[in-house]
């Protein structure tokens, strides 16, 4: 056993030495945890191949070292208290505490001064911030005085507290940081997650093919799909926030990740990309900005299109007016009317729905496809916690070429938690799931699509699954 601990320590020290050497080569410093991140650029170092690889090994080894060394009763209790950090983060984001702390400056802000602005009980502010600071999210710089660090600054929208008070529904419009996604996770997803146990252990509910049999519906006493639920007047704030949360989820991968992998620049002039269930169109925006030769049709529900129009007029003025980018109302469970698409793009759509419902979406696209149309599904590909089945080695990108050094887990442990996090989120909000490669292969094949390749650009959390009509 001690030998394993020594091996893990060795992996940490050699990986950190590699990071240090690479930083020296690049004449730069690794970002300091105590410094608030001031822009996405300050984190761009992690997009360097050598640094990203060594960092992943160090993190996986450090987490495994903790699991190996900590008293198991402590580990299991800490895991069962997983809601503590999520709860605290949700309240801090919703109460605009992060903005108040930033406005106070680098010396930090006393809980009484935070309370004077957002009206919360000062002791509760401290009780919520302290477990976060203990997990390296914020710093307690002196008794009851909290300041930002590199991680907590992502809760901050960058807006003034007064501006947020004046227009709370617009808090995330044009905002920096990750607050919109934090609150999607720690508000409705979290409330639904509290009911996962009740739903998955209820045999009647599990046997039913009712797509609305979700923990979210049980939590809120409703019986509607998530997207119609968002359109209820009482959910106006959540509805607007959801669109911006999707924009944040794009930013979790390095800027331009969607432009690497599939070669958008090689598609002929004027090709039409149909972004099905495209939301406000944040993924299309990134592709459109870099590829002025492509046309886009973003399809979604009417209410979402309204938000999308506002988003594009802010982010890429002129694109809608010129007609290069259009929005269209469309129900993806009905026949697809666009028959001349060069690419059908689906991001975070298939993972929302059960296999039965996903099949309907994919089949409608297959029915509308030309022989040359490609389908690009952008989703998390859920790895196994052991080595993958090599059966799909012949599909480029489907199976890893190699695995991390032993004794690390083949999926690199906590480094790759994102697909499982989002999978449980789907279990809370909908009846969808994150899928493994063989699961996608079967699902697409049954709907008439054959996967040609999988791209996962460096640092990207999601994969691009490229398929052609069978
Ligand atoms: C998880 S979001 C993904 C949005 C977008 N693809 C992105 O990645 O930013 C799912 C989207 O599907 C849309 N949607 C849900 N049901 C739909 C339906 N029946 N027809 C068309 N769009 C739908 C929602 O309004 C929402 O914008």
TrEMBL record:
Keywords: Methyltransferase, S-adenosyl-L-methionine, Transferase. GO terms for molecular function: O-methyltransferase activity. Coiled coil: none annotated. Residues 209-385 form the O-methyltransferase C-terminal domain. PROSITE patterns: SAM_OMT_II. It comes from the Eukaryota. This is S-adenosyl-L-methionine-dependent methyltransferase.
């Amino acid at each position: 056993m001690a030998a394993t601990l020594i091996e893990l320590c060795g992996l940490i020290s050699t990986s950190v030495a590699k990071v240090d050497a690479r930083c020296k080569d690049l004449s730069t410093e690794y970002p300091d945890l105590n410094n608030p991140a001031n822009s996405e650029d300050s984190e761009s170092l992690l997009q360097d191949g050598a640094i990203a690889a060594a960092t992943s090994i160090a993190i996986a080894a450090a987490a495994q070292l903790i699991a190996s060394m900590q008293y198991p009763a402590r580990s299991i209790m800490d895991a069962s208290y997983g809601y503590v950090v999520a709860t605290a983060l949700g309240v801090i984001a919703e109460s605009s505490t992060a903005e108040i702390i930033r406005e106070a400056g680098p010396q930090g802000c006393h809980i009484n001064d935070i309370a004077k602005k957002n009206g919360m009980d000062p002791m509760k502010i401290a009780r919520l911030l302290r477990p976060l600071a203990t997990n390296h999210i914020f710093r307690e710089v002196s008794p009851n005085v909290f300041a930002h660090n590199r991680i907590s600054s992502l809760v901050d929208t960058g807006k003034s507290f007064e501006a947020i008070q004046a227009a709370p529904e617009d808090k995330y419009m044009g905002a920096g940081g990750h607050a919109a996604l934090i609150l999607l996770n720690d508000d409705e997803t979290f409330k639904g997650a509290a009911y996962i146990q009740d739903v998955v252990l209820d045999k009647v509910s599990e046997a039913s093919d009712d797509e609305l049999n979700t923990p979210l519906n049980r939590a809120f006493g409703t019986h509607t799909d998530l997207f119609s639920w968002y359109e209820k007047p009482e959910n106006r704030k959540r509805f607007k926030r959801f669109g911006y949360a999707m924009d944040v989820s794009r930013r979790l991968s390095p800027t331009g990740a969607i432009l690497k992998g599939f070669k958008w620049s090689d598609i002929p002039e004027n090709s039409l990309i149909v972004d099905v269930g495209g939301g406000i169109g944040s993924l299309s925006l990134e592709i459109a900005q870099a590829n002025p030769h492509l046309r886009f049709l973003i399809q979604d529900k009417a209410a979402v299109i309204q938000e999308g129009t506002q988003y594009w007029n802010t982010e890429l003025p002129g694109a809608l007016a010129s007609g290069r980018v259009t929005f269209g109302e469309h129900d993806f469970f009905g026949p697809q009317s666009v028959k001349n698409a060069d690419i059908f793009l689906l991001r975070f759509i298939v993972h929302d729905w059960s296999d039965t419902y996903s099949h309907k979406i994919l089949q409608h696209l297959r029915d509308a496809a030309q022989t040359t149309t490609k389908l690009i599904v952008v989703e998390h590909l859920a790895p196994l916690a052991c080595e993958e089945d090599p059966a799909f080695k012949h599909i480029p990108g489907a199976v890893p070429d190699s695995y991390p050094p032993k004794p690390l887990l083949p999926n690199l442990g906590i480094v790759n938690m994102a697909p499982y996090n989002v999978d449980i989120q789907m279990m809370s909000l909908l009846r969808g799931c994150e899928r493994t490669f063989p699961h996608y292969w079967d699902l697409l094949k049954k709907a008439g699509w054959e996967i040609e390749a999988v791209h996962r650009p460096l640092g990207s959390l999601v994969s691009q699954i490229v398929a052609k009509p069978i």
